[in-house]
Amino acid sequence: MKRMAIISLCVALFITLFTGCSSTPTSSGNGNKIPDLTGEWKQANSKSKDSYQAATISGDIIEIYWVSDNGDTKSLYWAGSFIYPTTADEPYIWNSENDHSKTDSAMLASNADTKTMTYQNGVLSYEVSALGTTTKVKLEKQK
User: What's the pTM?
Assistant: First the structure.
């Protein structure tokens, strides 16, 4: 019974969302500023105001959560490596390696070994697949 309730919650959350220490470099050789990606990020393309994905980049780690109930509920989706950009060139793309010690016990977490992340024009994006559907999540940095 408990498992069925959790699966139902997962399906409802997915449908709601998608259908309705390291130092940061500051400049590159071309004079453009290297983006500082550390901090809090929130999904900009969610179909819901109270259900979305959010991420935190700190040190050499990125953690991404499913957020619902207007922020009252958080479930781990991804915990993986973060590699700081060394130039201002965009798009900036890296492959984040899953920290299975964190994600293996999280019911809504991705089980993929790596996830390709892209930063371009102030947007951090990656693909999410669930229930046979793949969508691109777009996050914007919060102030």
Answer: 0.81
Asked if residues 138 and 43 have their Cβ atoms less than 8 Å apart, the reply is yes
In the chain, the number of structural domains is 1
Instruction: State the Cα–Cα distance between residues 39 and 18, nearest whole angstrom.
Output: 24
DSSP 2-40: HHHHHHHHHHHHHHHHHT---PPP-B-TTSPBPP---EE
Q: Are strands 52-58 and 92-97 parallel, antiparallel or unpaired?
A: unpaired
88-143, pLDDT tens digit by residue?
999 999 999 999 999 999 999 999 999 999 999 999 999 999 889 999 999 999 98
Name the nearest CA neighbour of 82 among 37, 122, 40. Answer: 37
Q: Domain containing 14: what range?
A: 2-141
CB atoms within 10 A of CB 137: 22
